[in-house]
Amino acid sequence: MIANIIDIPAILIKKGLPFAIYSLPLSDSFTLIFQNNDQIKKVDILDIEEVSGFIIASFDSAKTREATIITPDFVVNDGDNYDDIKKFLDKIPENGDYNFLDNISLSKADYLDRATYLISKLKENELQKVVFSRVVQKHLKKNLKIKSLLRILRDKYKGAFINLFHLPGKGTWCGASPETLFKIVDDNVLTDALAGTRLINENKVNPIWTHKEKEEQYFVSLFIESLLSELGIHEYEQKGPVSMVAGNIAHLQTKFSIPTSSLLSKKGKFIAGLHPTPAVCGLPKAEAYLLIQKAEQHQRRYYSGFIGPWKLNGQSQLFVNLRCAELGKNKINIYVGGGLTASSNPEDEYQETVHKSQTLLSVVENL
């Protein structure tokens, strides 16, 4: 029975069809896109202007420059008539699954040891910043209810990009991302520099930012300024940094607005240049990327990649895949990380990842 758009994803997982369902920030409605076959299609990020659909890029696409695209064979909006979709899906056999893949989860002691090593490298001035992540594994008391998960995420995190996608053989992921990578609004392209993390109280009082957090934010903003300069773009608007609340934590955010006319035929280069952002990788980017590959035992997969609708329903919005989890029938892997600088404290950084994991833990524990 399909009574609501959020009834459909669980069916699509069983049918083994690629799909993505999402709710844009400050929206109450969902959009669902899915394919009529199980073929996973790829696109070079530099050629992104030539395609339309839902874009999914892994962390490693920074190296391969290859992203996955879910093509818009079916585009469904809240309140649509679902009769034709039901007729189509009734013909498809049920041979799909979540395709959950286990990953390595560090103990707290191992995390602190590795973080201490990375901070020592930063103090030697080898890098300005490196983002160190970990996996939080959670076994669920009951089988996952996709419908409830989507509804609670949307209601709890209004300002985030709520999403759930499935790629047959690759996995099923959900998230509530606070960070815009690339967004076209009217005649401008918007992107965020997001860094620094502080736990906030229930009264949403603005946090007091330390030198470490301000420095981290400065690095991220400077990176975007440098990239724009490399592309020959010098006319743009920059606002911030200001505090931005995402659930129970706040970040420092600087917003950039670039005239779309400045990025004609350069959108692919700009997106490829942004990814991975210093907020999820580090600076200098190449050196930080290599250090992450050595220090992290787990595979990041789609965590800290980017996702979003592209030339779909009149929208082109890509988000950094943060506050995300890999889903199984009765277990999930939550991916969290934090930016290390020379002034970082390993214990504080560990606690930051604990706070970030609550974005999704607080939801799945109440399903």
**Structural classification:** alpha+beta
- Spans of at least 5 consecutive residues whose pLDDT stays below 50 are none
Distance between the termini: 21 Å
Q: What is the helical fraction, as a range of percent?
A: 25-40%
Percent strand equals 25-35%
Strand tally: 18
Spatial extent as radius of gyration = 20 Å
How many helical stretches?
9
The overall pLDDT, averaged over residues, is: 93
Largest β-sheet summary = 9 strands, antiparallel
Give the SSE order as H and E letters: HEEEEHEEHHEHEEEEHEEHEHEEEEH
Give the overall shape: globular
Strand order in the largest sheet:
6-2-1-8-9-17-18-7-14
If you had to describe this structure to a student in words, what would you say it looks like?
By secondary structure, the protein is α+β, with helices and mostly antiparallel strands. Helix 4 packs across helix 9. The relative contact order is 0.21.
Highlighted features:
367 residues; alpha+beta
Give a short synopsis of this structure:
The chain is α+β, with helices and mostly antiparallel strands and 367 residues long. The chain has helices spanning 8-15, 61-64, 83-90, 108-123, 146-156, 211-230, 267-274, 285-295, 346-364; strands spanning 19-23, 31-34, 41-44, 53-57, 66-70, 74-77, 129-139, 161-167, 171-177, 180-185, 188-199, 237-246, 249-259, 282-283, 306-310, 317-320, 324-327, 331-340.
